């Protein structure tokens, strides 16, 4: 185990990244198979660089925020490209995600209100019957 903080390291093994981010090595290999990460290889060993670690942080943040792998891939494809394009795509995807979450929240609030009304009606009937 190394005492060097991850941010200052240059090279990472797959097991180090998995441990640091609390994910499986299989998940990292999956992201690699989807073209989201591209570690170097020394024989059968994967060697990840700072860039791969930064991309993994973005992938995991995107997944946590509910973005699809396609959305994340589109964003990462602009990683080395025009910053304006990247920011515009991010803003567009964030707006879409916010709109979806707000619709879901409204649906949840409606469902909760209806369930409370049903519960109240059931309790009222029980009291009248009792």
Automatic annotation (TrEMBL):
<dbReference type="GO" id="GO:0003700">
    <property type="term" value="F:DNA-binding transcription factor activity"/>
</dbReference>
<keyword id="KW-0175">Coiled coil</keyword>
<dbReference type="Pfam" id="PF09278">
    <property type="entry name" value="MerR-DNA-bind"/>
</dbReference>
<dbReference type="InterPro" id="IPR015358">
    <property type="entry name" value="Tscrpt_reg_MerR_DNA-bd"/>
</dbReference>
<dbReference type="GO" id="GO:0003677">
    <property type="term" value="F:DNA binding"/>
</dbReference>
<feature type="domain" description="HTH merR-type">
    <location>
        <begin position="11"/>
        <end position="78"/>
    </location>
</feature>
<keyword id="KW-0238">DNA-binding</keyword>
<protein>
    <submittedName>
        <fullName>MerR family transcriptional regulator</fullName>
    </submittedName>
</protein>
<dbReference type="Pfam" id="PF00376">
    <property type="entry name" value="MerR"/>
</dbReference>
<dbReference type="InterPro" id="IPR047057">
    <property type="entry name" value="MerR_fam"/>
</dbReference>
<feature type="coiled-coil region">
    <location>
        <begin position="91"/>
        <end position="125"/>
    </location>
</feature>
<keyword id="KW-0804">Transcription</keyword>
<dbReference type="InterPro" id="IPR000551">
    <property type="entry name" value="MerR-type_HTH_dom"/>
</dbReference>
<dbReference type="InterPro" id="IPR009061">
    <property type="entry name" value="DNA-bd_dom_put_sf"/>
</dbReference>
<keyword id="KW-0805">Transcription regulation</keyword>
